[in-house]
Amino acid sequence: MGESRIVFSRTLAAPATSVLVTKIPVNPPKAAPAVGPYNTAVRAGELLFCSGQIPLDPETGQMVVGDIKNQTRRVLENVKTILEHEKLTFANVVKATVYLTDMGDFSDVNEIYAEYFTEPYAARAAVAVSALPKGADVEIEVIAHY
């Protein structure tokens, strides 16, 4: 799947200034497939907004089986693929949101998360949800700065 560029522009009015915001879809060919009508990520100015990643194997499109640590590792590898496609690393991430179906998994997710993120850490929220797409137990979305 090749990368297409569709540019949407909007001028935001501000007192005595205006800013041109450009939205560029980012869909790396090696990334896990989207499970709905959305882009894997979108670049807007100097920010990359990565869609939530679940533990899908990018080669098979199937969910990774196993415990929460295996699922979290797969999720973060999927995030890493998107970041690397844009020549970024986890050091560029400024905000992460972690969605969990069981807050009892929080410490195990943190253990794996700490393998990918180093100080200074990104801002982060962890949210308990009743369900995630395809029965995943964890989903993580990030915002990174170029």
Q: How is this structure best summarized?
A:
By secondary structure, the chain is of the alpha+beta class.
Walk me through this protein's architecture.
The protein has a seven-stranded mixed beta sheet with strand order 1-2-3-4-7-5-6, covered by helices on one side. It has 146 residues and is an alpha+beta fold. The protein is 20% helix and 34% strand. It has helices spanning 68-85, 106-116, and strands at 8-14, 17-26, 41-44, 47-53, 93-100, 123-128, 138-145. The chain has one domain (8-145): 60s Ribosomal Protein L30, Chain: A (2-Layer Sandwich), CATH 3.30.1330. Helix 1 (68-85) packs parallel to helix 2 (106-116).
Query: What would CATH call the homologous superfamily?
Result: RutC-like
Tally of DSSP β-strands = 7
How would you write the strand order of the largest sheet? Answer: 1-2-3-4-7-5-6
Beta-strand residue percentage: 25-35%
Indicate the radius of gyration in whole angstroms: 16 Å
**Sequence stretches where pLDDT stays below 50 over 5 or more residues:** none
Count, helices: 2
Number of separate structural domains: 1
* General shape: globular
The CATH architecture can be given as: 2-Layer Sandwich
| Order of H and E elements | EEEEHEHEE
Summing up helix and strand content along with how strands pair, one would put the structural category as: alpha+beta
- The overall average pLDDT, rounded, is 91
Please give the share of residues in helix.
Answer: 10-25%
What is the distance, rounded to the nearest whole angstrom, between the alpha carbons of the first and last residues? 24 Å
Main sheet properties: 7 strands, mixed
Which class in CATH terms? Alpha Beta
